[in-house]
Amino acid sequence: MQGKEDADKRDIELMLKVQNGDNNAFEKIVERHQKWIINLAYKYIGNSTEAEDIAQEIFIKIYKARKGYKPTAKFTTWLHTITVNVCLNSIRGRKNDPNIHIVEDDILKSDKAVEPSKDMENAEISSAVKAAIDALPENQRLVVILTRYEDMSYDEAAEVMNTSVEALKSLLFRAKDNLKERLAKYVK
Predict the structure, then answer these.
(1) Domain check: are 165 and 123 in the same one?
(2) Which of 47, 61, 90, 126 could form an SS bridge with 104, CB 3.0 to 4.6 Å?
(3) Structural domain harbouring 23
(4) 64-119 residue pLDDT tens
């Protein structure tokens, strides 16, 4: 836990330097978080080029917001909130349905060798899980991504979603119910 706290303190220090006009500090923030932001955007968008564009947009927003930055929350929570909002705005701007890219290994982790027929079955299950998550209402999709795929605590996810922990738990419960219903034929 100490490592995360140290990293957060370092990020806050860098952002405060950015606030005072230190462009090298901004470059360090970009280096530290660019890959993570692109990966998160890709989970929402499902298109690597668009995820890179979104990452650029996020860093532009961060740079423009530098003067108003106040370290009242963890830096990564603040960054996550900006990332989620930009991704959701991008999804809302689309005419077709949003897609969330969930890698098969995220869903079906196995240390065993898989037979070819199992590969097909796993691909089918993976596809069904992805479709079920894509079909969730936006706020339920978001809570699943944040808590399951981003490994955020309920407190962190609630802060990113600007809601209470109780409301987040309720959303997660409804999301799990919806997923169980949609994936009933795959649950043994």
Answers:
(1) yes
(2) 126
(3) 1-99
(4) 988 888 888 788 888 888 888 888 888 777 644 444 444 433 433 333 443 445 55
- Mark residue 21 as left, alpha or beta (left: phi above 0; alpha: psi -120 to 50; beta: remaining): left
pTM: 0.63
Going from the C-alpha of 75 to that of each of 11, 47, 146, 187, the distances in angstroms are: 6, 26, 16, 39
Place of tokens 């995820």: 51
Indicate the residue among 99, 120, 143 that finishes a domain: 99
CA 99 to chain centre: 13
Say which amino acid occupies 105. Answer: D
Tokens matching residue 87: 């991704």
Q: How far apart, in whole angstroms, are the C-alpha atoms of residue 139 and residue 143?
A: 6
Residues 95, 114, single domain; the answer is no
